[in-house]
Amino acid sequence: MFNNVLRLGSSLLVSAMALLGPAVTHADEVFPSRTVKLIVPFTPGGTPDVIARMLSEKLTVLWKQPVIVENRPGGSSNIGADFVAKSPPDGHTLLLVPNNVPSINPLLISKMAFDPERDLASVTMLGVTPFLLVTGPSLNVNSVAELSAEAKRRPKGLSYASSGVGSNQHMFAEMLRVLTGAPMTHVPYKSGPTSITDVIGGVVDMQFGAVPSTLGHVRAGKLKALAVASSKRLAVLPNVPTMAEAGIKGFDAEGWIGLSAPARTPPEVIARINQDIGQVLRNPEVVAALAGYGIEAEPGTPAEMSARIAQERKSWGSVVSKSGIRAE
Q1: CA angle 302, 303, 309 (to 5 degrees)
Q2: pLDDT in tens, 274-311
Q3: Domain ranges across the chain
Q4: How many CB atoms lie within 10 A of CB 263?
Q5: Distance between CA atoms of 87 and 261, rounded to whole angstroms?
Q6: pLDDT tens digits, residue range 71-110?
Q7: Which of 32, 146, 220, 252 could staple 141 via S-S, CB 3.0–4.6 A?
């Protein structure tokens, strides 16, 4: 009899606890409570990877939890972005997001597996990356004007490499094609480093490459830098003109990397991540290290990042419309 009463009491206690729910939920955890993943939607070695590994080192110390970098390339960066968009919204899975994912891909790709605006939350800008218009040494041009003339002279124009449809390399070259009328053929690659290797080897004629990926090759004489895509010259390459200085008026473009979290991540978690990353990116040691790669640290608020995305969607929408490019 006593055992039956005991079993009944235990059963009622378990049922009551189930109704009350667990004492601690993910929402109750103090962030970070375990390993944090920084998802980089590129192969190792590119600009997002450089920034991610610097953040990983500093945040591991600051948060007293492992912060690891995980590369998930492919699909114009959509594979890694989709993974983060569908991860638990607790701040422990974050995306090093290149500007093309929220600003350009929705303009080009009619059937995306996720909606960047709906499924990702802006956390902070991380850094701005200038791009260089580069050619291999075998292409006999030494200026943007000569490049444009050579493209118009050839029946099929010049070829340009990119790391995929909708990437900055792709869109910058399309902007150049629209502004100059020079015929150009897009050659998409699965990774930036592979495409640069083929530009060096003369397999492809040209590319807009991010400074962290191209600077060493330029300094070694393996690539020729014809112009900087953005509006100001680079301190690391002071003799290379901007596109505007090279005669291409209206050309002003740069890449940037931000940090996104899954939508519905608690505001207090986003605020904590934003604050701590801002602290890291204002560290003079980090600022100098990123500058050595040609990356300008640029922390900011979630609202500032969201506003930049909205502005770029408008400006790139014009380029997409004029160029007629689409992706599936």
Answers
A1: 95
A2: 999 999 999 999 999 998 888 899 999 999 999 999 99
A3: 26-128+254-323, 131-228
A4: 15
A5: 9
A6: 999 888 999 999 999 999 999 999 999 999 999 999 988 8
A7: 146
Query: In terms of CATH architecture, what is 131-228?
Result: 3-Layer(aba) Sandwich (3.40)
**pTM of the predicted structure, to 2 decimals:** 0.82
Q: Residue 304, exposed/middle/buried by CB under 10 A (0-12, 13-18, 19+)?
A: middle
Does the domain at 26-128+254-323 match CATH 3.40.190.150? Answer given as: yes
Beta bridge partners of 41: none
| Residue type at 300 in one-letter notation | G
The string of pLDDT tens digits covering residues 125-171 is 999 999 999 999 999 999 999 999 999 999 999 999 998 888 889 99
Helix or strand or coil: residue 120?
strand
User: Could you tell me which residues come within 8 angstroms of residue 4 by beta carbon, excluding any fewer than 6 positions away?
Assistant: none
Show the tokens assigned to 10.
């235990």
**Mean per-residue pLDDT for 190-203?**
89
Shared fold status for 26-128+254-323 and 131-228: yes
Quick one: tokens of 160?
């340009």
Per-residue pLDDT of 21-67, as tens digits, reads: 443 344 456 899 999 999 999 888 778 888 999 999 999 999 999 99
> Residue 47: CB partners within 8 Å, gap ≥ 6?
98, 127, 129, 210, 211, 212, 213, 255, 257, 293, 295
Alpha-carbon gap, residue 79 to 163, rounded angstroms: 14
Q: Let me know the angle formed at the C-alpha of 69 by 264 and 273, rounded to the nearest 5 degrees.
A: 40
CA distance 189 to 43: 12
For residue 199, the one-letter residue type is V
